[in-house]
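lol ok so funny story. i was supposed to be doing the assay writeup but got distracted and ended up predicting the structure for this chain instead. priorities right. anyway since i did it might as well share w the group, maybe its usefull for someone
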Amino acid sequence: MYEWNEMVQLMIDWVERHLTANPSLLNMSKHLGYSPYYCSRQFNSLTGMTLRDYIWMRKVSRAALELRDTDGRVLDIAMKYGFSSQEAFTRAFVKAFGVTPSAYRKAPRPIPLAKRVEVFSPYHYFMKERDQMSQGQLQQVEIRKEFIQAHKFIGVWDISSQSYMQFWENGHDCDEICGTLESMSNLVLPGHLEQTAGWFYENGQKGYFYGIPVSLDYDGKIPAGMECREFPESEYLIFHYPPFDYLKENGAVMRIVEEAAWNFDPKSMGYEWDEDIKQDYQQHFPEGYGYAVLRPVKKLD
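and the output, tada:
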């Protein structure tokens, strides 16, 4: 049942490693040991796009980041990602983002970059992993305190969602939102993951939000469909699990971290939950950071 999810993820990983080498379906299928037909069919089934379209959009998106972050010539960047000429690259760029490469370089703006596809979502295999893995095999959740400076947060808040999967199932365009936020990755507050999420509270209701934290003095453009909110400085209790194997352990790790976060009594550390800051952060990057829930606290009187 899960064989092709794993295989398509391997296909995606292979494409990412070969974006500047003109990856082809034939070469990839040879590398993975499956026929081009099956690779193409299963990729389309799980991602909703053809492999060719995915490669094209990832090439243009990676080129956009190089335009933004490097001084390389437009022609050199175009050739690096397999475009036959600067004119061909310009046509592709305008088709994808509605602006020329030169205009974008002069005045970078939020654009809907194509994100690296993940066919496994944070909650996707929760039930399966819970049955396969007992809590006793996992490490202990680390609980520590950290100060986070006052900042702004750009993103989408949805009071009708309470989880990552529910948020995307509620009509939010994952590719557009994540791609647009990736184009703003250079603005992320130092020390934070590029894209993060969490829960917020309004009138006794719990909702879910997704976006990026930026500096308090940010006064740039806010992408359509998003808003910018300001949060004061605060100390946070961080319930953190170190890097882990996503495919095997994700559901179990998320479960024990969230159980620890929602059931912990901060009085044992001389704190209480700061209910004036009506949001909790969720940080999820299995291989590089791990998983964490961050809850604001204040010292007991």
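Residues 180 and 215 are 18 Å apart (CA to CA). The chain has a mean pLDDT of 87.
back to the writeup now i swear
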